[in-house]
Amino acid sequence: MLLVGEPILGDEEKNALCDVIDSNWLTMGDRVRAFEEAFAQAHGAEDSVAVNSCTAALHLILHALGLGPGDEVLVPALTFVATANSVLYVGATPVFVDIQSPDVPLMSLAEAEARCTPRTKAVILVHFAGYLPDRGAWQALARRRNLMLIEDAAHAPGLREVGTYGVAAAFSFYGNKNMTTGEGGAVIARDGALLAQIRQARGHGMTSGTRQRLDARTPTYDVTMIGFNYRLDELRAAIGLVQLRHLAHWNEARRALTAEYRRRLAAHCPDLTVPFSQPRPTTCHIMPVLLPADADRQAVIDHLRADGIQTTIHYSPVHRMTLYSSLWPDVSLPRTEDFARRELTLPLHPRMDAQAVETVAASLGAALRNHASAEAVA
Ligand SMILES: *Cc1c(COP(=O)(O)O)cnc(C)c1O
Questions:
Q1: Burial (0-12, 13-18, 19+ Cβ within 10 Å), 121
Q2: Which atom of ligand 1 is nearest to the CA of 285?
Q3: Which of 105, 83, 76, 75 is nearest to 339 (CA)?
Q4: Domains of the chain from N-terminus onward
Q5: According to the 3-state scheme, what is the secondary structure of the chain?
Q6: pTM of the model
Q7: What residue owns the CA closest to ligand 1's atom 10?
Q8: Which of 101, 121, 227, 264 could form a disulfide with 71 if both were Cys (CB 3.0 to 4.6 A apart)?
Q9: How would you classify the pairing of strands 120-126 and 148-152?
Q10: Is 249 exposed, middle or buried (0-12, 13-18, 19+ CB in 10 A)?
Q11: Strand pairing category for 72-76 and 120-126
């Protein structure tokens, strides 16, 4: 089966894990610190904080910014549910904003501005599929409306622009992301005081960690804020250090495969819409396409599966999930809903080659000819 995504793991990761075992120090030691410094450097940032998921990273950011009950946070609905859940964690209200267009399925700036109220405090920008929104335009909106910009950069590690939009960015190293530690995440925030607060809240709000107490030979610590246990361990950091060294060329491979997809899909599937037709900075995290409005998506999925090709959907919109639709039944996002109905995510990962891209494009072309519409199948 050609999978939508798969990690690249090998002897380097195995050896790195063995070194951690041999060191007899399993969590929050030198490797976590080294990973934080290397990850920051890869993004042109001073420093970063490693955590155990992007979800934890988002929670820590919103918590440190003091967001809470009564505050509204603008979020896209075309995202993974964790983006909106993090807003609920701090008791604030997620306000869903539609996408710009099928070609640019990022949060619409015009609609975001229209949804601002005196209670709107922040925006969480999601770099959907790895494609970055227009930084200057969002920063101008943030100034006009006095909003804090937060990046959910789960799809976009390894670009220097990422982490420079606003107050902070959250990254994911989950197994299907551009680099992985199994579970894991990180925060970049350019304000050192904010990052220090996030670092402390990551570990129960304690004023020092196990390792610092060993080095300082002072066994005591204080707790000066509410904190959480969102720590990363040495095993994951060791994997992260290896993966980070490959990230730039893996992202380059993803961009080359995406360019190849654009050529082959244009040849095999003339009725297909391939979003992000205009160049913009991207990590090419996934390969989303939009089927023609009358295509039978399930039949296309089944056709590709029979050809040994996995596909997925990004995303079922968050505002249509039972939890969210029962809390906010009146949200209507027509462009997001149309996109989500027609979207299909094709395999894209650096182990693929041009031949695999040709196989997928040819299979999709045949599927679309066979299943042009639900009626044709019935
Ligand atoms: C994967 C993902 C997350 C959550 O990441 P975890 O590390 O699994 O918590 C959040 N937002 C987006 C857009 C994601 O794709």
A1: buried
A2: 15
A3: 105
A4: 11-242 (3.40.640.10), 248-377 (3.90.1150.10)
A5: CECCCCCCCCHHHHHHHHHHHHHCCCECCHHHHHHHHHHHHHCCCCCCEEECCHHHHHHHHHHHCCCCCCCEEEEECCCCCHHHHHHHHCCCEEEEECECCCCCCCECHHHHHHCCCCCEEEEEEECHHHECCCHHHHHHHHHHHCCEEEEECCCCCCCCCCCCCCCEEEEECECCCCCCCECCEEEECCCHHHHHHHHHHHECCECCCHHHHHHHCCCCCCECCCCCECCCEHHHHHHHHHHHHHHHHHHHHHHHHHHHHHHHHHHHCCCCECCCCCCCCECCCCEEEECCCCCCHHHHHHHHHHCCECCECCCCCHHHCHHHHHHCCCCCCHHHHHHHHHEEEECCCCCCCHHHHHHHHHHHHHHHHHCCCHHHHC
A6: 0.96
A7: 82
A8: 121
A9: parallel
A10: exposed
A11: parallel
> 312, 336, 282: which is closest to 155 by C-alpha?
282
Tens digits of per-residue pLDDT, 172-216? 999 999 999 999 999 999 999 999 999 999 999 999 877 777 788
> Can you tell me which residue has the tokens 């220090």?
196
Is the four-CA dihedral 254, 255, 259, 262 of positive or negative sign? positive
Rounded CA separation 24/26 (Å): 6
Question: What residue has token string 């925006």?
Answer: 123
> How much is the mean pLDDT over the chain?
96
- Token readout for 326 is 């029962």
Q: Which atom in ligand 1 lies closest to the alpha carbon of residue 184?
A: 7
Encode pLDDT of 348-360 as tens digits. Answer: 999 999 999 999 9
Residue 50 near residue 70 (C-beta atoms within 8 A) = no
Task: Tell me which residues are annotated as active site.
Answer: 177
